[in-house]
Amino acid sequence: MHQSDALPHSAAALRTALLGRTTQAFFAQSLMGPAPTHGAVIEDILCHGHHLEIVFDDGIVMHTQLRRKGSWNLYRVGEKWHKRRSKADVVIETGEWVAVCFDAASTETYRSFDQHRHPRAGRSGPDISRLDADLQECANRIMHYDNLDATISEALLDQRVMRGVGNVFRCEVLWACGVHPWARITDLPKSSILDIVLTAASQVRANLESPARVTAPHVQGGLAVYARNGHKCSRCADIISISRISAEKRPVYWCPGCQIAGEPFRELDNSDPIARLMDPHPAAVLFMSDFFRNREAPAGL
Q1: Are 53 and 36 in contact (CB under 8 A)?
Q2: What's the predicted TM-score (pTM) here?
Q3: Which of 63, 76, 91, 281 has its CA 20 to 30 A from that of 113?
């Protein structure tokens, strides 16, 4: 199989085996750029021609450009490789799988672009994995965030607010606190913001020595919402959703049934006669609009 055809197949296999998995070991020869943090979760795998990118939840993106005979290979832990380990350019290990890249022309990493994380945008916040971190300062940085329209999801990944929260913890913390991912910071009370910071610090510190992240021991897999889209929520039995914030590539996993604190409501269109006559709550307007639309639809549609 020609490499241009083989790499997309390899990328598909890597996605099936690695997405949502915690990295237990990472090795890269001649790596240019920072390595992903120990225990980072693989969030996406992208393929473009001879290039393959692996996106980690800590914001690190690893880019490999393959030579003519380059390849990405997938093995089960303990399975014999078809080439010697000394020939490997990249090795990523999870609990069940080992992904290996051979004959890479280049291997580099970079942080996914976020204008709010640029070094000139402000000094880094406290590292909440440290026991001496000033958590009140983290809460203050959220409450006095420079973008009044920002959501709590955006603020949690801003290193100027606090360090140590990757995408997995962002999703799990917001679920634990029952906060809607798109809640605007200005719509959340101080008590909710402090609860979010304390919960984040508790979860991060509890997982410092753990090879796999566990935030909900009562749930199979140890996570309440992350990578569990389509499953029932363990708290309210609603179905867990996956969404993306427009400015980010990273997915947000959340439960629409119980993450309702700070939930944003869509603005009503007062030119709509239904909106003027009915209950002004958006859910009521949407229900009645669908009701009349279905009633007026021709038979057979």
Answers
A1: no
A2: 0.63
A3: 91
Report yes or no: 25 and 93 within 8 Å, Cβ to Cβ. Answer: yes
Largest CA distance in the chain: 73
Strand, helix or coil for residue 273: helix
Hey, how many other C-beta atoms are within 10 angstroms of the C-beta on 276? Answer: 12
16: Cβ contacts below 8 Å, ≥ 6 apart: none
User: 124-254 sits in which CATH class?
Assistant: mainly alpha
- Nearest CA to 170 out of 254, 110, 93, 280 is that of 254
Q: Which among 111, 109, 17 has a CA at the least distance from the CA of 58?
A: 111
Domain 3-111 has CATH 1.10.3720.10: no
pLDDT at 289 over 90: no
What are the helix and strand counts (H, E) for the chain? 7, 8
Q: Where are the domains of the chain?
A: 3-111, 124-254, 269-301
Q: Are 125 and 159 in contact (CB under 8 A)?
A: yes
Nearest partner of 28 among 62, 53, 4, 57, judged by Cα: 62
Contact 81, 73 (CB under 8 A): yes
Q: How far apart are CA 138 and CA 126, in angstroms?
A: 7
Q: For residue 199, name the pLDDT band (cuts at 50, 70, 90).
A: very high
Find where tokens 């014999």 sit: 80
